[in-house]
Amino acid sequence: NGLIIRQIDVNIIGIANVRLQLLYTTILFLSRESFRRTVPKLNDLRSIHHYINLTWFIIPIGLFIISVTLPWTLFIQTNNAEEYPFYYKACSFYALAAFIELLSEPFYLLATVTLNYHINIYIEMFASTVV
Question: Is the pTM of this model over 0.70?
C-alpha cells in the first residue's frame, strides 16, 4: 500500500478521500440515519409488516438523495473533471456503491426491531464487503 500511495498523485488521493468520500457518506447519512434513530423507538405499529413497509421506504429516499447530490457534486465549480478524465465515472460509482449499501438497510432495521443485534453485525459486514 505504501508503494502504491507513493506513486499516486497527491491530488487524486485528496479527491478520493475528501470529495468522493463526502459524497458517499452524505448519501448514506441523509438516507438512513433518521430511520436508524426513529424505527426502533416506534411502539404504536401493530405488526412486523408495518415495520417492513416502513423500512423499505429508505430505498426511494436514497434514490432521491442520490439524484440531488450526484449532480451537485458533478457540476460544482471544480477543475477535477478537466484534469482527471475519470472523475465523473468515479462519482457515479461512489453513488452506486452508496445505493448498494442502502439495499441492506431494511434488513438491518428489521434485525434491530426484532432485537437480533448479532445479525446486525453480519448485515453490516455483508453490505461493506459487497460495496
Answer: yes
User: Own/partner pairs for 47-50, CB < 8 Å, 24+ apart?
Assistant: 48/110, 48/113, 48/114
Q: Do residues 9 and 79 touch, judged by C-beta distance below 8 A?
A: no
Rounded Cα distance, 87 and 14, in Å: 12
DSSP state of 104: T
* Gyration radius (Cα) of the chain, Å: 18
Q: Look up residue 59 and give its three cell numbers.
A: 430505498
Q: CA 11 to CA 80: how far, in whole Å?
A: 9
Q: Which of 112, 100, 15, 106 shows the shortest CA–CA distance to 66?
A: 100
Write out pLDDT tens, residues 8-37: 777 777 777 778 888 899 999 999 888 888
